[in-house]
Records
---
Amino acid sequence: MSQTKTGSHAAATLEKTPAGDLLDTTGHTSGADWLARYSTSLMGVFGTPQRVLVRGAGCLVWDADGKEYLDLLGGIAVNALGHAHPFVTSVISSQLATLGHVSNFFTSPTQIALAEKLLALTHAPAGSKVFFTNSGTEANEAAFKLARRNGASPDGTTGKRTKIIALEGAFHGRTMGALALTAKEAYRAPFEPLPGGVVHIPFGDVAALEAAIDETVAAVFLEPIQGEAGVRPLPPGYLKAAREATTKAGALLILDEVQTGIGRTGKWLATEDAGIVPDAVTLAKGLGGGFPIGALLTFGEQTSSLLTAGQHGTTFGGNPVATAAALATLHAIESQRVLENVAAVGDYLRAGLAAVDGVTEVRGEGLLIGFDLDAAVAPAVVTAGLDAGFIVNSPGPHTIRLAPPLVLTKDQAGTFLAALPAILQTAKDAQ
Ligand SMILES: *Cc1c(COP(=O)(O)O)cnc(C)c1O
């Protein structure tokens, strides 16, 4: 042992600190007490959290008061394999115990292997590249900077295309560039001025898109299914028309698959069968199976060389632990045939929801599902759902969104379908 006296003393002290105490998984503090402490120490941007969650396993989570929930939101489309997945947990632990962080002055095997894996899964053409981030908004920031380089001279003084097109209802994130792409006025207005040049055009309207595109447009940003807007899929043919119009004008077609990617729709990318090759795709939410990681994929040599050495960067992005988490997640999705489960359970859920009294429309693909109600009671449904042991989300007053772990079973989905009529009634009675 070559430890110094102080070193071994520190180690001995740490050994006397049970991890359970530090992480407070002991269950001695009630949810109400935690929330009182929350409100005095955490910034109020999220309002009051619905519950204090202390533990998860698969599609179930437990709160500080010991109540169990079926998690039909999956951390907002993040926990692809559910909570505390043994394989993902072991890969993350093993990588952290080997090499946790190195900065992008260095690389690591997991980073390279993950980039290769993502390019293979998305059938990216030769010359395609990956830039890793820690979140969805950062992936879109990188894509925004990529768009700013479209057509520009190396020093950026000439040829710059100033306009970027996004859709009404779009959600691309909360940092300034991604916020400029996001349509919702309540999110944007307090923070103006935002990076300029972004124009929002009517959702799913091919004629509006064709009218807006010209040689000043750097890029068009699209979500294949608008998640935050209530799970709204682009109409059939829209992506193809967008590809044709962008190609003609020399604009980039950038697909935000932060929510729809990594198996969420039963395919690796929601746009896999759309018959188009985009210029770039952003990913995040499900990619790390719950561990924070995002990515910008640039398709083809030309787009991949728009950002050159020194033009973008990140300290944490693509670190060994995050990339190991994603490698483990992708491997588990593949080897456990999870995509087949997504398609089957998604179809079962949608059919079941459509048959429930009070449900007026069901949208989405795979396990990204939105359904509308015949009354503006969606927030009350969230509350009644929690009381009944189900976690769901309301992106709008009439709309409920489900984005459960991709490993949700038919039986688990069935318990929600069986409970939903009573949950809707409770919500309506509470109005
Ligand atoms: C969640 C989301 C983002 C933002 O991701 P963060 O990780 O929250 O920054 C961007 N685009 C879409 C489509 C999303 O669903």
Note: Residues 345 and 410 are 6 Å apart (CA to CA).
---
Amino acid sequence: MLLIQPIGLILATLRKICACDGFVRNGSWKNGDFELTTKFSGKVVGIVGLGRIGSAIAKRVEAFGCTISYHSRTKKPNTNYRYYSNIVNLAANCQILIVACSLTEETCHIVNREVIDALGPNGVLINIGRGAHIDEPELVSALLEGRLAGAGLDVFENEPEVPEPFLGLENVVLLPHVGSDTFETSKAMADLVIANLEAHFLHKPLLTPVI
Ligand SMILES: *[C@@H]1O[C@H](CO)[C@@H](O)[C@H](O)[C@H]1NC(C)=O
């Protein structure tokens, strides 16, 4: 999996690409330039969950010259990224917070009001994990009250239901849980299933055994 889509979501959120598109389509451009937006390069990025997906995102984010820190249950031995055992401290010390952990009892609503307020009015939240990682009503009120700069969301608590107030906000980018859904990854996944089945019936080692 290439995991380019989370980077696309970050850029779309910071650079307001979707609102820009609407601005051109509805003719507003003729009345003046689009507002200034935020640059991605050089930002401090906090990643929640440095597993397979979190690490893959970190690698790509590094290419933008961003400083990376992370929060997870335990410190990872094989990385120099700065570790925060407390997610509130991570949020207080980054500008872009990316949620990429798996959903467990512990990580349900891990992004609550305290975390959102620590991220603050210049902070941007990106969720490519699961909807339930975020306390959605708190996110809605933070955005409406200007306590958070913006959010890029690929997942929602009750998808395909999306909280109504999000629909009217221009500092929010909403994706229909597309994750890694591309023609290429769908084909790669289908090919892998077939290769595993072939190996199974030929009594060969499986390509991706479940351990
Ligand atoms: C056109 O779209 C932009 C971006 O969504 C929005 O800010 C603006 O208010 C719209 N203008 C009109 C006239 O609909």
Note: Helices lie at 5-15, 17-25, 52-62, 87-92, 113-119, 136-144, 164-167, 183-201.
